[in-house]
């Protein structure tokens, strides 16, 4: 059965996709840092706030739109990620669906 998202969830996902797509316009040397920064920002806030707290989600959505708009600007050519983001990336950020899927495939290949 397909997942049904609320209109607010669709807006958040749309903002996330917009942020990730904007990375393509940045220099190749800076793209990994932008990816880490965006993923950290979205995933940590998703854990901090309840999906049912509509006022907070709407506030974060407005903040996020402004932030992504600023980051998309031509003047922003790179970002520096802090220790918190690096720590998160090394502990949790890489453990996304694709990484877990690739690791599982590698394990299966190793067993054969």
What do you see in this structure?
With 112 residues, the protein is mainly α. It has one domain. It is 73% helix and 0% strand. It contains five helices and no strands. The chain has helices spanning 7-22, 28-48, 54-72, 83-93, 97-111. Helix 1 runs parallel beside helix 3 (54-72) and helix 2 (28-48) packs across helix 4 (83-93). The longest helix is centred in the middle third of the chain and has 21 residues, at 28-48. It is globular, with a radius of gyration of 16 Å. It starts with 6 loop residues before the first helix and ends with a helix. The model has no long low-confidence stretch (mean pLDDT 88).
How would you summarize the topology of this molecule?
Elements: H1 7-22, H2 28-48, H3 54-72, H4 83-93, H5 97-111
Catalogue the unreliable spans: none
Radius of gyration from CA coordinates: 16 Å
What is the number of helical segments per DSSP (H or I, 4+ residues)?
5
Strand content: under 5%
| SSE order, one letter for each helix or strand | HHHHH
First CA to last CA: what distance? 33 Å
Q: Kindly state the number of beta strands.
A: 0
Give the proportion of residues in helices. over 70%
Report on the biggest sheet. none
Mean of pLDDT: 88
Structural class: mainly alpha
Number of domains: 1
Task: Using the alpha-carbon principal axes, give the shape.
Answer: globular
């Amino acid at each position: 059965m397909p997942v049904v998202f609320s209109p607010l969830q669709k807006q958040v996902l749309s903002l996330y996709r917009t942020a990730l797509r904007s990375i393509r316009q940045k220099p190749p040397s800076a793209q990994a840092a932008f990816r880490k920064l965006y993923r950290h920002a979205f995933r940590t806030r998703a854990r901090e706030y309840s999906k049912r707290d509509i006022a907070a989600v709407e506030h974060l959505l407005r903040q996020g739109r402004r932030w992504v708009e600023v980051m998309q600007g031509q003047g922003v050519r790179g970002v520096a990620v802090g220790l918190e983001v690096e720590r998160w990336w090394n502990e949790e950020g890489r453990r996304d669906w694709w990484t877990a899927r690739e690791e599982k495939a590698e394990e299966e290949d190793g067993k054969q």
